[in-house]
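Hi R.,

Here's the input for the copper (II) ion complex you asked about:
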Amino acid sequence: MFKAWRARSAVGLVVATLALVASPATADVSLQPPGWDKDLRLAEAPDLNPDPHIVEINIEARVAPVELEPGKRVDAWTYNGGIPGPLVRVQVGDRLIVHFSNHLPMETTIHWHGLRVPIQMDGVPEVSQPPVPTGGTFTYDFVVPDAGLFWYHPHVMSAAQVGFGLYGALLVEDPADPVKVPDQTVLVLSDIGIDDHGALESPDSGGSTGMAFGREGNLVLVNGRVRPRIEARAGAPQRWRIVNAAKSRYFGIDLDGELITRIGGDGGFTEYPVESDTLVLAPGERADVIVVPRRAPGREIIVRTIPYNRGYGSVEFRSADDLLVIALAATPAYAGPPVPALLGARRTIEPISTAGATSVNIDFTIAQLGNGTFVYGVNGVPFATHHSIAAKPGETQVWTIVNKTKWSHPFHLHGFFFQVIDEKGQPVRPLEWKDTVNVPFEQTVRVVVQYDDRQGNWMFHCHILDHADGGLMGMLDLGVPHVDHSEHAR
Ligand code: C2O
Ligand code: CU
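And here is the predicted structure with copper (II) ion in place:
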């Protein structure tokens, strides 16, 4: 069947195999019922610039009422009035200009997570830019160098501000994308804490113990909604671009017995697709996946997040939460080319050579102070932006990250992609470009990174934002003197 389909698309012949003719698998003809992902559609900010290679948008941070499920409204912190903020859609190589204005009752910035931007555009207060005060504005303006799904969020009081609703997805499309799956949707996974009075939960609930664990909201959201629905066709592939934008929660995505094929991660495609029945995403991570529901037409698939063991308190007395429902239409299943035939997702990624690399050793630590409060630290130093790791443009470094705590920590480096290697220095396959990697509790993860010439003070931190705010952060000084901004980076 695959061969016939290839032959047909290659020479333009109509092959008289009914199933094939009925469902041409080209990149733009939908295989799904009309409006299949309408529950999930994200608002997009209108592009104000007529130049096809410049996307120019307005983003306004403001408090606004949002409806999380029918009848459940909360005054949240939003970009352009919604949770999540608008989907920013650009093509690789485009220039993105964002006119940002802050109408929140607190200063803020925008950090472009995973994008290789100049340091002036990185959104870290005092290092990249002054924080944007209430009533203030800032223009972000940079070229988007890599295809993939990225995201944006504040870098001031991050746990509070992200927890209140400030995050959005940034999809960098590649006009030459080889994956011919016509039906694609972006899933922004998050959670939000709502108290008994229907207001946002205090960001310091549970005190320093709440910080030590990493506070999770009590409502799980997909594109800002509780348990949205997809109306799908059995047998037809769907491509999901997923980001975990929660401030602390890991998602263990389970498809009720269906399979997930992962074709990409933080920085675009992986070397080759991998099929599995669950997909774990730590805060900050992304995945590009294909899902082909095998269940009979008319049935439903409940997509859940199952508790992932990220350390003490994360699996005890916990149950799964529903993420979304895939309702299969009562029409005959799609019987076109099988999924592997639709995937062009192979990518050659050269392993970064570790020969001549310098070694960096960091430990993630936690200490309980005399008064009973917890502080996180890097090498025992809370807010290790006091200290820093020095590097030169062009240098390659191998970072050995030892997690000495009882909780897992997603390590995130600003500004650069890295590759994960094993204890022998060999690449972990399939190779991929990452900016965020989970360091499981009491384990060690090694990454190799090669810097370019974008000099500056680049942050690294745990992407459980309560942990970052609790001291788990540090600084990489690339070709420039050190700046101590431990009071602001949170
Ligand atoms: Cu998405 Cu410094 O973080
Ligand atoms: Cu952490």
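One thing worth noting: DSSP finds six helices and 29 strands in the chain.

Cheers,
M.
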